[in-house]
C-alpha cells in the first residue's frame, strides 16, 4: 500500500489519469442517501467501502 502510494506520487504525468479513474470509482461507489449510508456499487455494503476509501486518496490530496 505504501509502496504503490509513493509510486503514484512520482508518476505526476499520470496523476490526471489516476484521478479520473478514482473519480469514476467514487461515482460508482457513492453512498446511499441515508443516515447510515451503504455503498450503491457494492450492493449494500457499508460506505465508504474499500474501493471508495482507496479512490478518495487520489481524488482529494487532503486525504493523504
Ligand atoms: Zn463500493
Describe the protein's architecture and organization.
- This protein is mainly alpha-helical and 64 residues long.
- It is 52% helix and 0% strand.
- The protein has one domain (2-63).
- It is built from 3 helices and no strands.
- α2 runs antiparallel to α3.
- The protein is elongated, with a radius of gyration of 13 Å.
- The two termini are 12 Å apart.
- The mean pLDDT is 83.
- It binds zinc ion.
- Zinc ion binds next to α3.
Sum up the structure in keywords:
mainly alpha; binds zinc ion
Euclidean distance between termini CA atoms = 12 Å
Task: Count the DSSP helices.
Answer: 3
Give Rg in angstroms: 13 Å
Low-pLDDT sequence parts? none
Shape: elongated
Measured as a percent range, the helix fraction is 40-55%
The run of helices and strands is HHH
The biggest beta sheet is recorded as:
none
Count of extended strands: 0
User: On the 0-100 scale, what is the average pLDDT?
Assistant: 83
**Chemical compounds bound to the protein:** zinc ion
- The count of domains is 1
Strand-residue fraction?
under 5%
Going by helix content, strand content and strand pairing, the class is mainly alpha
